[in-house]
Amino acid sequence: MNSIAIVGAGLGGLACARVLQLHGVDVTVFEQEASADARPQGGTLDMHGDTGQVALRTAGLYDRFRELARPEGQQMRALDPHTAEVVIDETPDGDFRPEIDRGQLRGLLLDSLAPGTVHWGQAVTDVAGARLTFDGGETRDFDLVIGADGAWSRVRRALTGVRPVYSGVTFVEFGHDAASDLAAVTGRGTMVTKAGGHALFAQRTSNGDVRCYAVFYAPEDWHAGLDFADTAAVRANLLERYAGWHPDVLRFLADVEGGFTHRPLHVLPVPHAWTHTPGLTLLGDAAHLMPPLGVGANLALLDGTELATALATAPSVDEAAMAYEAGMLPRSIETAKACASGLDDLLSDDLNSMAA
């Protein structure tokens, strides 16, 4: 088998590498971050039975996933923002979308790879066909370069030239530890409250901590002049935006001491596709960046395992990439269309829209 390079050690890229190695295919993953723990990996993910769980079965990691997953994390709780009353408190019957911390899932994938598969601290500065140039000037040639390098993919620039655009919605991330009584308010899974184009989401993680997100419509420069290192100033700005909500709900913002992180929501145009180009392909957010409505990680995992299976079984690298793209692109376009319309539901006043 010819040489395969994956740019990006996110979930999709690691799943692809895992399945390639199961088939005895040599693969190298290049990641610009210095190590696996260079930054926090974020909150919790629900693994869907028809996408993410399928991928984990293909990767031979389903049983280990089950040991880490939290079926109780499927609980959905909704609060009235003006009264703090719990108006929805549901946990689905069965076990169709169990939760797992993103960091745990990434660790599971990393641990499944042969030592040395991931080359940390290897930033790709240029992509020309299947030739990669790294920070420092070194170049390496491959038979296939897989862009698994996320929203601002450098590999995508070489393939399509399309860049993400701001969606008009921004996220501000923050958190509370398990000792806070807001953990009990959140419940075992996800809590949501929303009104007037503003929402607050909170999610319990495996250690009981709570990851929270303030979500609202705003111009791209809404934070001009606001220093996100100044926790008090950001807190005051957000409390003003959410003025009129019940004080017990506003405690999710008012009690923050650990700081805030700005995460403006960017998306790729719909549809996003490309003419097949030998030597290059994309997966995950690099291929189909869409609103975070619970499908992105699942699709990235499925992309990675399907591409790897094709590479291990098709007569040639190019035929494998073509077959993968023929299935992945229509699927991702349809999902992106649904997510684009679902973004307004995310910020609608209908609390039931989050309990489906």
From TrEMBL:
The cofactor named in the record is: FAD
The answer to keyword ATP-binding applying to this record is no
Q: Which residues bind NADPH?
A: 39
Q: Where is the FAD-binding domain?
A: 4-169, 280-314
Catalysis performed (reactions): a tetracycline + NADPH + O2 + H(+) = an 11a-hydroxytetracycline + NADP(+) + H2O
Q: PANTHER family, from UniProt?
A: FAD DEPENDENT OXIDOREDUCTASE DOMAIN-CONTAINING PROTEIN, MONOOXYGENASE ASQM-RELATED
Quaternary state and interactors: Monomer.
What family does this chain come from, according to its entry? Belongs to the aromatic-ring hydroxylase family. TetX subfamily.
Instruction: From the Swiss-Prot or TrEMBL record, give the protein name.
Output: Flavin-dependent monooxygenase
